Amino acid sequence: xxxxxSWLREYVDLPAEATTDDVFAALVSVGFEEEEALGFAVTGxxxxxxxxxxxxxxxSNGKTxxxxxxxxxxxxxxxxxxxxxxxxxxVGDKVVVSLPGAVLPGPFPxxxxxxxxxxxxGMIASAxxxxxxxxxxxxxxxxxxxxxxxxxxxxxxxxxxxxxGVDINVxxxxxxxxxxxGVAREYAxxxxxxxxxxxxxxxxDVQPGSGFPLAVDDRNPIRGRVGAxxxxxxxxxxxxxxxxxPAWMVARLTLAGIRSLGILIDITNYVMLELGNPIHxxxxxxxxxxxxxxxxxxxxxLTTLDGKERTLSTEDLLITDESGPxxxxxxxxxxxxxxxxxxxxxxxxxxxxxxxxxxxxxxRHKLPSEASRRFERGVDPLIxxxxxRRVADLMVDLAGGxxxxxxxxxxxxxxxxxxxxxxxGFVPALIGVDYTDAEITGALETIGCEVAPLEDADAGWEVIxxxxxxxxxxxxxxxxEVARIxxxxxxxxxxxxxxxxxxxxxxxxxxxxxxxALAAAGYVETPSFPFTTAAxxxxxxxxxxxxxxxVRLANPLDGQAPxxxxxxxPGLMQVAHRNISRGFTDLALFETGLVFTPEAGVTYGTExxxxxxxxxxxxxxxxxxxxxxxxxRLVAVLLAGNxxxxxxxxxxxxxxxxxxxxxVEAIAAAAGVRIDVAQGQRAxxxxxxxxxxxxGGVEVGYVGEILPxxxxxxxxxxxxxxxxxxxDLVLGLAGTPDVEASLSSFPAATQDVSLVVxxxxxxxxLAAALREGAGELLESLxxxxxxxxxxxxxxxxxxxxxxxxxxxDRTLTAAEATEAKLAGVAVAAARFGAxxxx
Length: 838
Fold this sequence. Notes:
Elements: E1 2-4, H1 5-8, H2 20-28, E2 33-39, E3 46-58, E4 64-71, E5 79-84, E6 94-98, E7 103-104, E8 108-109, E9 113-115, E10 118-120, E11 123-124, H3 155-158, E12 164-169, H4 180-191, E13 214-217, E14 228-237, H5 247-255, H6 263-275, E15 279-283, E16 291-295, E17 301-303, E18 309-311, E19 317-321, E20 324-328, E21 332-333, E22 345-353, H7 355-364, H8 370-375, H9 384-399, E23 402-412, E24 420-423, H10 426-431, H11 437-446, E25 450-453, E26 460-464, H12 475-486, H13 506-520, E27 524-525, E28 531-532, H14 534-540, E29 563-564, H15 569-581, E30 587-594, H16 618-626, E31 633-640, E32 642-644, E33 653-654, H17 657-671, E34 676-679, E35 685-695, E36 698-706, H18 708-713, E37 720-726, H19 727-734, E38 749-758, H20 763-774, E39 778-787, E40 796-805, H21 814-832, E41 835-836
Parallel strand pairs: 13-16, 27-30
Antiparallel strand pairs: 1-12, 2-12, 3-4, 3-6, 4-5, 6-11, 7-8, 9-10, 14-22, 14-23, 15-22, 16-19, 17-18, 19-20, 20-21, 24-26, 25-26, 28-29, 30-31, 31-37, 32-33, 34-35, 35-36, 36-37, 38-40, 38-41, 39-40
Helix pairs in contact: 6-9, 11-12, 13-17, 20-21
């Protein structure tokens, strides 16, 4: 919220010497965030000048300049010669002259300089050059602002260019502060300065006339709340839209971030900023009959003020007349009834719309506006009558209109403010500060609450929040207000003592070990968004590549990726592509995260809404758990480019499948499990270069090379390898032993064995047979060679394994190691017909 200090002074006693830093300090103390100081960045001398004469001088470049004689007052040197390229002024006009030494926004310093054959002793300024708007079609004529000052008058003060302001960040729950009224009240809370409420009017003074047809027909309320709870209209006749907007109003609007668009629109914007209630004005003569507030019909369209035709949703709340839609309620008006230079009679609308309805409409049509920003946060339900009258009064005073006291209308219901019970002792116990009863009640009354003791006075108070604070809904929010008003610095800083025996769960420790192991192995963790496409889910989220059930978001951040992921691999591939496109070609990436794997034929979701403030019972928790799809936590890695870079005397080494298998081994070691690898198959991976990963016969993931066609579609050059495992399942199968196995002090016995088998035998299956037969003495086993060629029969291969044996209580003899090895060979022979290669 951008707040000009001159405007703020109208409603709160702001010291004349107060700076923007002083105002920031006060507002920050009551919970706002400082953004930036505001100002026009114009320094003098900038004065009023009167054009005495000018001569038009065509130039060789086709441009015509004017050599002007301008009276800037005796105090500033009298008549000065100035070159000007504009042609929209006349002899006798009062203009704004920036004299040498002035600085305009940019910064743009002014100096006397020779140009077009003359020495220009200053510059005649346009509105844009002064920072008063975007208009740059010509210089600023003060007559257009209704001003006729004497030459030499200080133009900075005349135009309000000496005003400064503050920009503060207003949190969504404090929409009342999106107004000068709200900020002035908060400044008063912070400093104790006297506050004058601009909405303090007698009820009878703000009542509109009657007779204008109004109706609210909301047959599709959102969350059971009618779209418009209050709707007020007033009529002003005989306005003159050509009248200039006063300079003080233009300056304030500009400093507040709104450009001047003509006196009628400027007045509605001014009151919106002042009171916080968005106002819309209609050309009364372009309306057809009365106004009805209703939801849009299927296929209905509306051309809004920005000239765009919008196809409406049946949830959109509309302002309509007999001709059809004339505005998106609370968001933007329609072009058919907008106020123009031909408008003579104005219908003023002030309303209260449902917050959720306005928020959804603004987001649906990507049409955020100053009006929707306020309506979606909540508008004071007691302000529309006052706001409509304030607009009408300004149109009478500044646009020459006449208030029609007979024609008007209002639809409204009783504003019910629910009382909140605040027990004595609750606030000190929650905040940790020993507030007195007087401090508690005083703070609440300061912010506008009505406070009365309960029937049992010792029990506490009954508090009715003010109408402009819809965020005050319970005792906790009241306690927060007490702390805010008395200063958050009073809350003591106490370091809590953690209860003994708590910490990370075994599952959390396992996840950290795996992540640390991959990071230590050179992998970079790259968390990604859990959103993806249906095609990516089908390809990577199932082994077959066929359509897999997935969760579709009702309101996705990206319409091209509306599904929750079933695999981490698509996200890693996007990260890889982004890095490769920026020159990082050697990649080792990993991610741990949740995926979403709904079961086919199961409907998820629930209408169970547990109560707040208490723990749901077991049945409610079970219903909530059943309403969401399974969400296992996976770990995935992706490798591309080189695993080792080129060095002097040593070529680069490209990544291959063994590097992805090494990542799997690192995960297994960190989890404390042995992961077996067998031939596998997945639609997204290369046939013959895909492995299925399992623990004790339970499949936990896969590893392999991405298909070249899939890599090409993802713009990944060369070969890329991935591995993906169900991390929670891996850690669950690992168990959580309290004592790690101790290292044996006895030496190991190592032996190799080469077995000849058919080339269709999977190495992993053969290794499992050797391991099973060798028994408990076998400490480790791994494949060291796969030979196929001369010396072997066609259709066979020789697989060589390195075996290491160790006993926990003695040194093994060579005979014991050989016996264990041959026992393993016997099982391999029985199962696969394996023979020892001579």
